[in-house]
Design a protein that fits this description.
The protein is an alpha+beta fold and 650 residues long.
Length: 650
Amino acid sequence: MIVFVVALLAVTTLIPCAFSFHSQSSSFPSKQKQAFIRTRNEHDNYLKQTANDGFDDDDDDDNDDEEVIIEDWRDFRAKLVMKGDNNAISDDDNNSSSNKTLWWAYDAGYLIEKGSILLSRVESTLGCHDLRQPYFHKCVVLILDHDEGEFTKGIVLNRPLNVDVTDDDIIYLDDDGIPEKLRPKSKNSSNNTTTKTWRMNFGGEIAGFYDDNPMIACIHSITTDLGNSVSDFILKDVLVTSLDGARSLVEAGEALPSDFFVFCGFTEWEPGQLHNELKRGSWYSAAARSDAVWEQLQQQKEIDDVDPRGSGLEMWQILTEKIKRVDDDDEGMVSSSGGGDDDDDDDSFTDLMLKEWTAEMIRMTTSDDDDGESSLDDRIIFRALDVAKGNRTVGVGSVVRGSSLDTSPFLLNEQLFHKSTVLVFQENESFSVGLILNLPTADTFVLETSSGNAIDIHIRYGGPSGADGEESLIWLHGSEALRSLRIGKPLASAGDSIFDIASPVWVCTHDQVAQAIDLGFAFPEEFMLVRGFSVWEKEEAGVGGITGQIVAGNFELISPSLVHLVWSKLISQKRLSEGTLENNINLSNEAWAVYDQAMAREATDSNSTTDVNRRFVFGSNVEVSQLSDDALRNWILLFLLGDAKYSSFR
């Protein structure tokens, strides 16, 4: 059973944090005024516009009633847009029947306000959000609150879930975060005490499903006195309330649970952030009539057996076409060969990442699903037992590699660790420090020797910590000849090592490297220069760190007897460029596969077999393992070769 711990919410406006819903009050401290009537200035401007455009008398006569009142002021603004562009706004068939409601949507440029619709743009170049927040791909966001100087808050509309939550699944918290012992019945409630069921939707990562205090917003169109009192106005006939408010409307007999669209979590932008993203071209801002919102939500809701992996894209497509925007294909990204039996076109990399994100993050599996979850749990238990026996103990000088699981733990985040080779550089009670060895960068360091030589040494990316300064440069070598000359020192000696042999990787100083090259003892290509490092924190009693990562299946320990083979592959990598990218990746993969080759030889000798569980991205013929490889390559293109600055979507 799914249990939600929900902070009680009562929507208030202009609060620069999570929805501030409170159980003590079912009304708002201030009611947003609903501006349904055209202002005098808008009316005058409208008349001037119609006069300048030379509308005929019949058209004016038809609009006599509109000069008195317009139900939604956005209708009026839309009419101005229609007069300026006859192709901008229409219903599906341009039906002029008076019995058919015309719902409109148009590109609002850089305008952002409460009730705006954001449509993410499929860009032709790589974007950080495509790797770190794939749920923003082909995304539709309804703006719930906007203050350019404070914050902007919205909910994602087109990420439906296959989850129904009942009242019994929800634990309500008061303002102090204490669970309420008894949920009092609303004073407006009827005798209907049947447990209510609510179909959930993903609204955003902030205060979402994986938050300690998830928050729920309910979109509805109930404009009774009670509906208005427990809700905040967004658009005409579009209001938002808390789950507590929705329950009070159901208990009062004014609504059914099916009258609400229920969203868990929200998305938020800091002051000026969304405006910058609009200028950058990451979003389209659209104005749309409330009918458009309801029609798309209802169509999405009518899917009986919703599968989050393939749902919600129709809403984005319809609204994008409605505002006459056609995006470029994301040609700049590595795109796996896609398209399953059900698809006419190949899926792009971003389409596949979105599908896999929904599969891993918001799709709830049942006992009927066969995703290998039970076997994965068993492997974690066996790894923990091995660690307890001392079979997988990790220390300074150990070399580990990224997980070989078919579904990489680094597909949706921290792609730099996918098929990585990491040297454990430091261990203490608080954290483990590792150096990634397989990621050359485009940067170089000029090594000046005492003889006056200036030698370019390419720099490797060791991890995100300390990667911005030269003070974290670390020199390494794995040469047996240099070890015999005592150039540098081992990370772990035979006496201190957890193994019976000393670490084959030695650390040395800048001066030692320069002197060894000057004296002819070594070539520059025999050294690795690493900038930055990776940190894995430990909990109390030293639990966690890189050992915890191994138990979780994120990394695997490489036998010291294989490290020299791994090193020989990686030391051949060159400075990163478009010309060396593919060969560098191939060498990195070969180094990562050394362990597999050794295990395959052992399996052959023992006549044992290893089962390979090939999993495909939903609705495609692309293996998840291939998508993980593509994600790593795109990470390299974006962060190491493109030298891009990451600007996070909230």
